[in-house]
Design a protein that fits this description.
By secondary structure, the protein is an alpha+beta fold. The protein is built from 6 helices and 12 strands. The strands form 3 sheets. Strands 4-1-7-6-10-9-8-12 form an 8-stranded mixed β-sheet. The chain has a two-stranded antiparallel sheet with strand order 2-3. A two-stranded antiparallel sheet has the order 5-11. It is globular. The model has no long low-confidence stretch (mean pLDDT 93).
């Protein structure tokens, strides 16, 4: 996997279906090297910290391969670097081959997979498409959230090298489909709770499924 672009953005208002939505989903490529901090890249912000950002969602990455799907008749949008809110546009990032808890060396930083992205109304707003969230599910390429284990400098063309993993191996795509389906068995919930590095809010969700 290789970083093609580093993208950052600040909150702004977008008009969608007659309502103003404050969002920082629109990211723009920046020249590196760029400092990756504990909570974000320097110069990047989130508009609503109750659902975006924080330690468990400090960095959001998408594959450059997903752009072809979005530009197809199914996707229907001319997306490019940063359009979908990603901080990292990464060549070769495949959700069915990346596992929750995987640790990657990226430049002088280290990052760890915590969960897939779950589409929300802000994706619909940036694309001006009320079906954008459903389209992301159809694409099966939602992107990946990471926490920062070690801050550092990141450059375009940096490789993402796997340096650690958990014993419980569940792919990002498997978790995405379970969460979008909004129902899972007690056995599935128990298996997810074995993943030490899983996003804390998702851990709570799976705990509740067992209660």
């Amino acid at each position: 996997m290789k970083v093609v672009s580093i993208n950052v953005g600040r909150p702004k208002k977008i008009l969608f279906q007659g309502k103003e939505i404050l969002t920082a989903i629109e990211k723009k490529p920046v020249d590196g090297p760029l400092e990756l901090q504990t909570l974000n890249f320097r110069g990047d912000e989130q508009a609503d910290l109750t659902v975006h950002g924080g330690q468990d969602k400090a960095v959001y990455a998408m594959s450059t391969e997903c752009y072809a799907w979005w530009k197809s008749p199914q996707g229907g949008h001319d997306v490019g670097l940063g359009t979908l809110g990603e901080n990292l546009s990464v060549e070769g990032l495949f959700e069915d081959q990346i596992f929750i808890g995987d640790v990657f060396k990226l430049g002088s930083a280290e990052i760890q997979v915590t969960q897939p992205r779950l589409p929300c109304v802000k994706l619909n707003a940036i694309l001006q498409d009320s079906l954008a969230g459903k389209k992301m599910m159809q694409s099966q390429m939602p992107g990946v959230y990471f926490r920062v284990l070690k801050p550092g400098q990141v450059r375009t063309d940096d490789a993402m090298a796997l340096v650690g993993q958990e014993s419980t191996r569940i792919t990002v795509l498997t978790l995405f489909n379970h969460l979008m389906r909004k129902n899972f068995s007690r056995e599935e919930a128990s298996e997810y709770l074995k993943i030490r590095s899983l996003n804390a809010r998702l851990k709570q969700k799976f705990q509740e499924a067992l209660s």
